Amino acid sequence: MQPALSVVFLTVLIGAGQGLFLALYGCELAGFGATPQERDTLGLGAALALAFTGLGLLASFFHLGHPERAWRAAAMWRTSWLSREVIALPAFMAACAAWGGAQWLALPGTRVIGAIAALACLALFVCTGMVYASIRFLQEWASPLTLVNYLLIGCASGATLAALLASLRAPALAPMLALAALALTLAALIGR
Q1: What is this structure's pTM?
Q2: Would you give per-residue pLDDT tens digits along the chain (192 residues)?
Q3: 172-184 burial string, b = 16+ CB within 10 Å, else e?
Q4: Residue 168, exposed/middle/buried by CB under 10 A (0-12, 13-18, 19+)?
Q5: Most buried pick, 67, 110, 112, 116, via CB within 10 A?
């Protein structure tokens, strides 16, 4: 199968943005984010995660047959994984933006906001993975492992981006994030 280039960009960019957010939120849960510089790094990472997901959303418009009807995509949320994905993506983006803004403004409750964003992120991973897993005529994708692999590859991409960000802004975190990226990549390879 040769998917449209816009679908490849959509899937890779949004998955990397989600994985970046989860890696950074994991760093916060591990105790990173106590100083103003660390909070700024988390806020910058959230902005990057939003940029990746925004670019992925932009790429999605290039494979629509009728972009003027894009608003209708959410109408069948009860039966369509694609409709659910259309709802989950802006929910994740809004929660990620709230978490990043709370980091930059040093507001209390960033872990709670991050937990909400993480739930939205996981819901988006499930919706996107199920869009592909429910394509019955592609035997390679019509599998529960499609969802698992999409989650692992997105998290591996995000951990790689987080390691890069950490190498520039918080070098002590870079080795841990690089190891996480390697472990997630190997897990995705095994799942494949």
Answers
A1: 0.95
A2: 677 788 889 999 999 999 999 999 999 999 999 999 999 999 999 999 999 999 999 998 887 767 666 667 777 888 889 899 999 999 999 999 999 999 999 999 999 999 999 999 999 999 999 988 888 777 777 788 899 999 999 999 999 999 999 999 999 999 999 999 999 999 999 988
A3: ebbebbbebbeeb
A4: exposed
A5: 110
